[in-house]
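Margin note from the TA: students keep mixing up input and output lines. Inputs are the sequences; the output is the structure of the whole complex. Example:
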Amino acid sequence: MLRRLEELSNLIGVSGDEGRVRRYIKAELANIDGLDMKTDAMGNLIVHKAGKGPKVMVAAHMDEVGMIVIGALDNGLIAYGQRGIDSRVVVSKRVLVGDEMIEGVIGAKAIHLQTAADRKTVLGHSELFVDIGAKDKDDALKYVKPGDRIGFATKFKRLGEKRVLGKALDDRVGCAILMQLLANDYECDFYGVFTVQEEVGLRGMYAAAYSVAPDVVIVLEGTTANDMPEVKNVGFVTKMSHGLAISFMDNATIVSPDMFKALTETANTAGIKWQPRQGTTGANDQGPAQRMRAGCKTGCISVPCRYIHSPASIADIDDIMGAYALADAFLKNKKFNEVL
Amino acid sequence: MDTTMIKNILGAYGPSGREDKAAETIKQYVAPYADEVYRDTMGNLIAHKRGTSGKKIMLSAHMDQIGFIVVAIDEKGFLRVARVGGVNPIIATAREVVFENGIKGVTYFENTAKHGVNEATFNELYIDIGCASREEAEKKVAIGDMAVYVTNYVELGERAACGAMDDRICCAIVAEAMKEMKSEHDVYAVFTVQEEVGCRGGSPAAYAIEPDLNISLDVTGVGDIPECSRMAVSLGCGPTVKVMDSSVIVPPVVRAFIEAAAEEDGIPYQREVLRAGGTDTGAIQRTRGGILSGCISVPTRYIHTPVETVDMKDVDNAVKLLCACLKRKELPRR
């Protein structure tokens, strides 16, 4: 699973351009028997492992936050648009642009040229540009074109014994876990769904949940671990290395009490370390799934990740393995029957 | 309308996503007048009265109320909370609240040395349930539990003030209409869930029912209190026929249908344009291939506070207006 997480993290798949991630997942799953794979019109990869019992969908999103080329300036710099990225985290970061993975950097005025006022001002995305080394506009447009996606050039690394560093851990951790689950057999009609465009408004799941029409949905996510020294009370949402997180509510979904109970009981019975996701901000693919057609039951298992939506996030291997173990135990013990 | 029923429905616990107790209470009042009563996957309570015309009318009023959800319990036993729906942190300070299991608490805010209540934010709000430690508090309340304002029904002449008028007063109106109505159509009275967190319950119910017409019932704002934003709606001048809110533009054919019913029976009504705020009307309108959807509202002062105030004449007239709509043979058509 860690090999796949590394390979998935290194792939660039900004919302709406998830093809590289989808192709990788399809190739990896190709040698598992009994999987029917199809890609829908949105680009969601829907993997069906037919079985008897309720329709259970486990979902993870393939897309990551990133940027998109909107044009080139006369001096060859690239202007970009984005969603979900704090402009403070992109300055001086190396990026890759378009299908050809053109290397570039997001530059800003050097410190010795800045005024005292400059140093107190946060640059916005409209004041930042990608520099690919082009000498002018025409030169730049030979290499990149408007609409090309821009991803961070971060390479995945193991940190110490128990932690990993990489970009897009939100939600490649979910993708890696779901791929592993698809190798197992469960007593249900199982759908593994790798969704698109989650980061720009949970868009892929609308189509996937409509066509699959599941009875139960479990979303696998990478969520924020804001466990910094100055954060007190509930501001941390989750804490790194304190186990996977189980959601009770976020901005898109109120998890039904029976689902929260089924997940927490499963974790307690199996001795899997877990924590409640102690915040109600953020949103994920549970939302559209819960209210599609006549509605279904949804739950969410998350891996705490520090610094999500940035060029480099960090997660704990035990938390990742715990999230896999909980999803596996929930399916193996047919806990989905307890919410129907 | 029976005041005991109104008080019972208003007093039932039921924030968004935790509507079981409210559903149980409402069920008692509608079951005698329905052919079947059931709850769907989302938790919507549905009372179905069969008709003979082959047409289906859905009525929808939301059961859920705004509230608080516990996200952490600190070492001194204070409960840290997030909002469930449109709770204002300043109005939410120094209130009495209650959990589903009956545990009571009071609210206050931290940083009192730094600023007054006027600057309180939700992150600073907490619930004090009288415990001195986390261990003691965890015996009474768990993370993920929700609290609501304690309701206190205040009679003000022909008017009344209480928490949860939004939208339990309309649940009571629909329950009363189920008792009083005569209709040749199939009538589905749907008491929806999770309206306050983004109109989430109504659409799945409408998907399953596939009605020919939906009439939602909800509270709406007023323009008759001192120095408020302009709105041509006043307490006591009749229920309103919605023209538009943030979630919906009501099709003129549906508005005309409701207004014709009011005029035929001589029921006073007002037209309503609600500038801020959405209702299930919109989510239901855009379910499946589209559903004709309108809304009758009860003018309400001080919405989303524990003193939501309505005029009982408007409430009684809303029941009459709903019954007048349900008895009509011809339903609106595009």
